[in-house]
Design a protein that fits this description.
The protein is mostly beta strands and 223 residues long. Helix content is 4%, strand content 40%.
Length: 223
């Protein structure tokens, strides 16, 4: 859509300039609240039966789920969603994932989804809710209890990454920086050449064997 500035010169209407209007809302839904359209299992073309739409949420409800990824790849983006997990539950949100290894977590950084007080991973800030799993710690105090919705904002722009949990920025790092490289070298991800190095990739949701639900999943592409 275009808009025009106009001028009246000696009784004549003259178009002076035209400009393109940016869309009012650049957000794109990744989940329609009714179906699993737009998603598939890692290294598969379908979605496992363990993923169901329950109360307008994309839910890991039972066996036969598996990790799922978007059908589209994304490079620079802002992702927004809400998650709710069972007591003692564990899951995650992957970004810039690829299928170049035998598991999604060997290629994609992960924003941890966890019931901190009732899961062993909650004992370390490196593996607690909001953390860049195993690499960057998240601070305590911003997680809502199991069974309540937690709001996520994930910004991936060039090499810059931010994790936001319930309105608070909990992780901030630069992919490829010396600090990042040192942390990866000291982690279990060190042997995996694609980990955190994909310039673009899939958004992924983890099946860790526990009940978890995601809703209001949307994304907007950044320049």
């Amino acid at each position: 859509m275009k808009t025009f500035r106009v001028a009246l010169v000696w009784g004549s209407l003259i178009i002076v300039t035209s400009t393109s209007c940016a869309p009012k809302d650049a957000w794109r839904p990744l989940f329609d609240g009714r179906t699993t359209t737009g998603w598939r299992n890692f290294k598969s073309d379908s979605v496992g039966s363990g993923w169901q739409v329950v109360d307008s949420a994309l839910t890991r409800a039972g066996p036969g789920a598996g990790d799922i990824i978007t059908r589209d790849k994304f490079k620079n983006f802002e992702l927004s969603l809400e998650w709710k997990i069972a007591p003692g539950g564990n899951s995650g949100i992957f970004y810039r994932a690829s299928e170049d290894d035998d598991a999604i977590y060997w290629t994609a950084p992960e924003m941890q989804v966890l019931d901190d007080p009732h899961h062993p991973d909650g004992a370390s800030r490196l593996t607690s809710a909001g953390a860049n799993y195993g690499i960057d710690s998240s601070p305590p105090g911003f997680l809502k209890p199991a069974g309540e919705w937690n709001a996520v904002r994930l910004v991936v722009n060039g090499n810059h990454v931010e994790h936001w949990l319930n309105g608070q920025k909990v992780v901030d790092y630069e992919l490829g920086s010396p600090a990042w490289a040192a942390k990866v070298k000291a982690s279990k991800f060190a042997p995996h050449a694609h980990y955190g190095r994909n310039p673009e990739g899939y958004i992924g949701l983890q099946d860790h064997g526990d009940w978890v639900a995601f809703r209001r999943i949307k994304i907007r592409v950044l320049p």
